[in-house]
Amino acid sequence: MEDHFLKMEGISKYFPGVKALDNVNFAVRRGEVHALVGENGAGKSTLMKVLNGVYQADSGSIYINGNKTSLRNTKDAKAAGIGLIFQEINLVNQLSAAENIFLNRLKTRGITVDWKRVFNDVQNIVDDLGFVFDVKETVENLSAAQKQMVEIAKVLSENARLLVMDEPTSSLTAAETENLLNIIRKLKSTGITVIYISHKLEEVFNISDVCSVMRDGQIIETRKTGNFTKAEIIERMVGRSVDMEYPKRNVSKGEVVLQVNKITQGSRIKNISFELYRGEILGIAGLVGSGRTELAEILFGAQKYDQGELFINGRKAIIKNTFDGKKSGIGLLTEDRKETGLVLAYNIIQNISVTNLPKAKNGPFLSQKKETGEVSRFRESLNIKAPTMKQLIVNLSGGNQQKVVFAKWLFSDANILILDEPTRGIDVGAKYEIYLLMNKLVEEGKSIIMISSELPEVLGMSDRVLVLSAGEITGELSHEEATAEAVMRLAIQN
Questions:
Q1: What sign does the dihedral 42-45-47-48 (CA atoms) show?
Q2: Does residue 53 have a pLDDT over 70?
Q3: Higher-confidence residue: 160 or 39?
Q4: Contact (Cβ atoms closer than 8 angstroms) between residue 28 and residue 201
Q5: CB contact set of 381 (below 8 Å; sequence gap of 6+)
Q6: pTM of the entire predicted model
Q7: Which end of the chain, N or C, is surrounded by fewer C-beta atoms within 10 Å?
Q8: Does domain 4-238 have CATH number 3.40.30.10?
């Protein structure tokens, strides 16, 4: 009996000017968790869209259970037992979980919906999976983890035998992530096959049996995951040796550029005081709900504070809104670049220049020639990979989108950069480039406040670490003092 649930042989896919997939051979055994890793733009999503019938391959063959299969559209993929769970939740917020799971397939009695049967059938699916949520609850009231469960239940209710999970933990907490990994283990035990796409190599080693590495539209190597080291996977992903996950820098701390005195906002931010120095990366750690993002938005002017004082370069700063923040030389890279950091329908030039349009004017009018000239220097200095600066932002990889956000704030002449989850959703190679960029900026005299949920990132990149818990600073640690244990002890206080 054929041991592979899926075989893709000689798959190639071309887009105008781009060879997205180059003779890809990819096989997944029945009942295994097979990780697919690679940098943004390596071809992972394109390969999975070919598998799901969204794209048609220009050449190659697909076999399901040993039978050659034509997947002309997503309906064909569903009929073949393939279900794709996207990184972005694809649910209707105003409908219940049950309605989302049986969307367009609601059970009827005559001409009316048999709601009792619908809810019972969905509850049985949810109970069998061990999920915990009310199937009658409106999706908008569910947590990110529960929404992910609804997506899984929806796909499995369509009799999927192969689940493709694309960055499924990108918006989950550590506890929710562990719960999802346990769910995947349970699905595997029932014979479900899983293709697991993730930038988080810890998860790859935790959950997968086999790992395939993609680069430049090709499968570079496939091994049992346990036979890889993390360094080997990274090297194959980026095509070079990355000797240090967190690159070293040599910067002497300068004068105080930002002084925060007893900032308070209701019960969410309580009496916070600290200093930020020129040429410093100050890490801020804490659990979800600790007040990290609220503090960042207060400093930038996106949220108001009740009391306290801010001093920038020794002068009292009145920051009531984001215009004041920008005028004071502060830039905020928000944790969700697609929602609040970029205008996806704009091109690279427009996204960068929007923070400082006077720089792009000739007299009272905006000059496209001057705008292009002012902005284009960032393409080389930040290594933004795009065929042209007029490329739409939506078509860039996550790492290059994040570089554009950096460029936007550098164009505004910001000297204090607040980075909220600066490497969320980007691959290992792009992370390393972001770290190099951060080092370059502080070497040039900028100052950085970095908020991250990835503790190794906080420990690896910060000169000092402030730890927040329930809106208060519970401790400050030097680079040498900052260990995972020390940070977590402070993070769970209060």
A1: positive
A2: yes
A3: 160
A4: no
A5: none
A6: 0.63
A7: N
A8: no
